[in-house]
Amino acid sequence: MRNVYGIVVLFAAITLTTSQKTDAILRNDFDGPHVDGSYKWAIQTEGGIYHEQRGSVQNNEAQNLLVEGQYQYTAPDGQVIRLLYTADENGFHPVGDHLPTPPPIPPLIQRALDYLASLPPKNYE
After folding, report:
1. For 51, which of 15, 73, 81, 93 could close a Cys bridge (C-beta 3.0–4.6 Å)?
2. Residue 5 pLDDT
3. pTM of whole model > 0.90?
4. Is 10 helix (H, G, I), strand (E, B) or coil?
Protein backbone atom coordinates (compact mmCIF):
# COMPACT_ATOMS: atom_id res chain seq x y z
CA MET A 1 0.00 0.00 0.00
CA ARG A 2 2.90 2.32 0.76
CA ASN A 3 4.30 1.75 -2.72
CA VAL A 4 1.03 2.92 -4.24
CA TYR A 5 1.17 6.18 -2.30
CA GLY A 6 4.77 6.60 -3.41
CA ILE A 7 3.69 6.16 -7.03
CA VAL A 8 0.92 8.73 -6.55
CA VAL A 9 3.41 11.27 -5.20
CA LEU A 10 5.82 10.45 -8.05
CA PHE A 11 3.09 11.04 -10.67
CA ALA A 12 2.23 14.35 -9.04
CA ALA A 13 5.88 15.41 -8.99
CA ILE A 14 6.39 14.45 -12.63
CA THR A 15 3.24 16.30 -13.63
CA LEU A 16 4.36 19.44 -11.85
CA THR A 17 7.94 19.36 -13.12
CA THR A 18 7.05 19.02 -16.81
CA SER A 19 6.39 22.74 -17.04
CA GLN A 20 9.24 25.05 -18.09
CA LYS A 21 8.17 27.82 -15.74
CA THR A 22 6.67 27.93 -12.30
CA ASP A 23 2.90 28.12 -12.67
CA ALA A 24 0.46 29.02 -9.98
CA ILE A 25 -1.53 26.11 -8.62
CA LEU A 26 -5.22 26.68 -9.27
CA ARG A 27 -6.51 23.49 -7.69
CA ASN A 28 -4.89 21.22 -5.12
CA ASP A 29 -7.44 18.80 -3.64
CA PHE A 30 -6.52 15.77 -1.57
CA ASP A 31 -9.02 13.44 0.09
CA GLY A 32 -7.72 10.38 1.91
CA PRO A 33 -6.41 7.85 2.37
CA HIS A 34 -9.48 6.64 4.20
CA VAL A 35 -9.86 3.65 6.48
CA ASP A 36 -11.14 1.54 3.58
CA GLY A 37 -8.01 2.41 1.53
CA SER A 38 -9.78 4.74 -0.89
CA TYR A 39 -8.42 8.14 -1.84
CA LYS A 40 -8.73 10.82 -4.48
CA TRP A 41 -6.77 13.88 -5.43
CA ALA A 42 -6.59 16.47 -8.17
CA ILE A 43 -4.13 19.19 -9.08
CA GLN A 44 -4.31 21.86 -11.75
CA THR A 45 -1.83 24.59 -12.66
CA GLU A 46 -2.19 27.91 -14.38
CA GLY A 47 -0.16 26.55 -17.31
CA GLY A 48 -2.80 23.96 -18.23
CA ILE A 49 -1.42 20.91 -16.43
CA TYR A 50 -4.14 18.82 -14.87
CA HIS A 51 -3.89 15.48 -13.08
CA GLU A 52 -6.50 13.66 -11.06
CA GLN A 53 -6.59 10.21 -9.58
CA ARG A 54 -8.80 8.06 -7.39
CA GLY A 55 -8.12 4.70 -5.89
CA SER A 56 -10.09 2.07 -4.06
CA VAL A 57 -9.46 -1.38 -2.70
CA GLN A 58 -11.40 -4.06 -4.54
CA ASN A 59 -13.17 -6.40 -2.15
CA ASN A 60 -11.89 -9.70 -3.44
CA GLU A 61 -9.58 -12.24 -1.81
CA ALA A 62 -6.41 -10.42 -2.79
CA GLN A 63 -7.82 -6.94 -2.00
CA ASN A 64 -6.28 -5.38 -5.09
CA LEU A 65 -6.05 -1.64 -5.47
CA LEU A 66 -7.92 -0.18 -8.45
CA VAL A 67 -6.57 3.20 -9.57
CA GLU A 68 -8.29 5.38 -12.16
CA GLY A 69 -7.08 8.74 -13.31
CA GLN A 70 -6.25 11.15 -16.06
CA TYR A 71 -3.76 13.84 -16.83
CA GLN A 72 -3.54 16.55 -19.43
CA TYR A 73 -0.90 19.01 -20.57
CA THR A 74 0.14 20.88 -23.69
CA ALA A 75 3.16 19.46 -25.52
CA PRO A 76 5.88 21.78 -26.85
CA ASP A 77 4.42 21.44 -30.36
CA GLY A 78 1.05 22.77 -29.10
CA GLN A 79 -0.77 19.42 -29.08
CA VAL A 80 -2.96 18.85 -26.03
CA ILE A 81 -1.99 15.51 -24.53
CA ARG A 82 -4.77 13.84 -22.55
CA LEU A 83 -4.32 10.39 -21.09
CA LEU A 84 -6.90 8.34 -19.21
CA TYR A 85 -5.64 5.35 -17.28
CA THR A 86 -6.55 2.55 -14.97
CA ALA A 87 -4.21 0.38 -12.97
CA ASP A 88 -5.25 -2.86 -11.37
CA GLU A 89 -3.98 -6.37 -10.71
CA ASN A 90 -3.44 -6.75 -14.47
CA GLY A 91 -1.19 -3.69 -14.83
CA PHE A 92 -1.33 -0.15 -16.18
CA HIS A 93 -3.86 0.54 -18.98
CA PRO A 94 -3.45 3.92 -20.70
CA VAL A 95 -5.84 5.35 -23.30
CA GLY A 96 -5.10 8.45 -25.34
CA ASP A 97 -5.40 9.77 -28.88
CA HIS A 98 -1.67 10.49 -28.97
CA LEU A 99 -0.66 6.88 -28.25
CA PRO A 100 0.45 4.80 -31.24
CA THR A 101 -1.86 2.10 -32.54
CA PRO A 102 -0.86 -1.08 -34.34
CA PRO A 103 -1.25 -1.21 -38.12
CA PRO A 104 -4.29 -3.04 -39.49
CA ILE A 105 -3.98 -6.79 -40.09
CA PRO A 106 -3.44 -7.51 -43.82
CA PRO A 107 -6.54 -9.06 -45.46
CA LEU A 108 -4.87 -12.42 -46.26
CA ILE A 109 -3.66 -12.83 -42.69
CA GLN A 110 -7.09 -11.87 -41.34
CA ARG A 111 -8.75 -14.41 -43.64
CA ALA A 112 -6.38 -17.13 -42.37
CA LEU A 113 -7.08 -16.17 -38.74
CA ASP A 114 -10.83 -16.24 -39.38
CA TYR A 115 -10.53 -19.68 -40.98
CA LEU A 116 -8.50 -21.06 -38.06
CA ALA A 117 -11.01 -19.67 -35.59
CA SER A 118 -13.86 -21.39 -37.44
CA LEU A 119 -12.32 -24.87 -37.14
CA PRO A 120 -13.73 -27.12 -34.42
CA PRO A 121 -11.38 -27.77 -31.52
CA LYS A 122 -9.38 -31.00 -31.73
CA ASN A 123 -9.31 -33.52 -28.95
CA TYR A 124 -5.65 -34.51 -28.47
CA GLU A 125 -6.27 -37.21 -25.88
Report:
1. 15
2. 59
3. no
4. helix
